[in-house]
Design brief:
Growth Hormone, Chain: A; MFS transporter; 16 helices; transmembrane helix; MFS; mainly alpha; MFS_trans_sf; globular; transmembrane transporter activity
Length: 509
Amino acid sequence: MPDVRLASPQGKWILLTTVLGSSMALLDSTVVNVALPRIGRDLDADLAALQWTVNAYLLTLAGLILLGGSLGDHYGRRKVFVVGVVWFAVASLLCGLAPNTGVLVAARALQGVGGALLTPGSLALIQASFHPDDRGRAVGLWSGFGGMGAAVGPFLGGWLVDGPGWRWVFLLNVPLAVVCVPVALRHVPESDGRPVRPSAAGSATESVTGGAAGRPHGRFDVLGAFLGALALALVTYALIEARSGPVGVVTGAAVAGLVAGVAFVGVERRHPDPMLPLDIFASRQFTAVNLVTLCVYAAFGGFFFLSAVQLQVVAGWSALGAGTALLPTTVLMLLLSARSGELAERIGPRIPLTVGPLLCAAGMLLMLRVGPGASYAADVLPAVLVLGFGMVALVAPLTATVLASVDVARAGVASGVNNAAARAAGLVAVAALPLLTGMSSEAYRSATAFDEAFQRAMVLCAGVLVVGAVVAFTTVRRPAPDCRRPECRTHGSVLAPPLEGERTKGRLS
């Protein structure tokens, strides 16, 4: 049984290591959007290149994150975590030195591979190292510090873009890795992914992304991971290039993406230990909550991609101003998400998962007021506050309901699947929104053209959120009394790593 206590020097070192590692991935997910206009100007990039700057990272992260957790289970979580940190840092260095968009996009894809290795590993190390009595508090501190990083990220990114330059958004990861890796090797114990026996208090642990019973994977589902990533890549390519690419090539990519998706399902159905066990979707509630996840995170992905550009290109704000404009959403989630989870336990998840997306939809419609000469107090802040309260209402109950909808032994894989679905939804939204709104490849260089497309995009995002609310209202039901609940329900950012991955004695009431 893991026995490291949080108050011990080793416990503090473990917490520092995992916070530093997860912060690298979290900072990149929150600050790159702020840098997009400056990247486009400096590298003479069109809108498609900026989309790929975001999506190349999301593509490899979403496609490989489940496999990354499996590698940690098999080869050792500390080892894979350290490899992920080093990989991420080297890819970040390549991003910071990129002479053109081609190199930048390729380096961003490599960053996603590193993120897929370190993101599940950061939480897994906490769960595998700390004594059961301290584990919940350790996860809470990890999440809280991650939320602080999410809050600082846009401010720091804006300051870097306006000051030393956008390249430092990526180069900042290198010194973080230089600190993180030696601490991990010296102070973090290795764990091989074997399930921990129940303690006298009745608690037990389970692999973050292991098999149905929490066992380490005997055979890696490499083919499944490849086909899943290939399907996402081809569909993303077709959506991004549909505006200006050759019709035959775009059509071929779309068809090939669908074929790869069908092949992925076939492989997962036959694999003895699949990356995505399809029988988990036999739970109607699990399927419904993941549909809600797809809706809300698609809207969030489109919103965060476009809003930072809107504030700079159309409203004329600095990168620092645009980066800090959305800060209230993070602050509200840090302060109120745990209470939202407690409320959902008392009244059930149906109402929060219905009201939350509707509030977010209202917040995005309020963003229609943000145009040339927009005022923060009168135009941006009301929209951001309504959006933030919507996120508070839905994010924590969404995590809890995912875990409550499957057997306790499959909580880890359920959390992993839901996290991958959220990232894939954001990926597709970033690819599809410019196409659906008629945004040209040079739209971000024109305040008028971008503003018109942004208005249409916010309406589309609000509509997708309303669909998510309808799905939640018609399908989500109160969980059984003895189902799972997360160890920690404090969320700092919708872009943060998942908060759950292992079984504990906690229950939803």
